[in-house]
Amino acid sequence: GAGVSQSPSNKVTEKGKDVELRCDPISGHTALYWYRQRLGQGLEFLIYFQGNSAPDKSGLPSDRFSAERTGESVSTLTIQRTQQEDSAVYLCASSLGRFSQETQYFGPGTRLLVL
Amino acid sequence: KQEVTQIPAALSVPEGENLVLNCSFTDSAIYNLQWFRQDPGKGLTSLLLIQSSQREQTSGRLNASLDKSSGRSTLYIAASQPGDSATYLCAAPPASGSARQLTFGSGTQLTVLP
Asked: How far is residue B7's CA from residue B10's CA, in Å, rounded to a whole number?
């Protein structure tokens, strides 16, 4: 079956431009996560969606970052007025969202480079 | 705030060796402990998930243990192969709250030499 997919796989943009990253979770997964991995660093949690509940935005680093999810499907992460420190791999993960079935399945990531 | 540490940061071994990767966490109130592998240019692949009530999990040549009281987990790889070369990450979500966001260690980069 299809796994988590992300697009684009690579994105190069100029400082100050807005970018939009897309994540398609595994069908039937109610939980969706966005993480960021800067070069040489560990993964940082950004935002979490669970069904129709309000998202947990506690990991978003600034108000330039926002994310939306349509029901229990596609999610988009938007970065406005990009800065060079936003350069990273942005990973999306999904899970069934039920107790004892919390394995998170990750997409291949979007590599963002801000020049 | 949970902090996850992995030692060593890098490890190089000859093919066939058994090896142990270490993971420690500061807050024992975790929901589970997960091990992933990350290959260059690719996403993460889940290897093992140990529930907080469990002590270990096994999958093929991999065995992961969990000792919540000491804040430690180990990943044991038996009879290592060149295909095992990757970065191994451990991660844990908090036991409380509705979110299950993972706090990751910085990883152990494993190279298995043929």
From this structure: 8
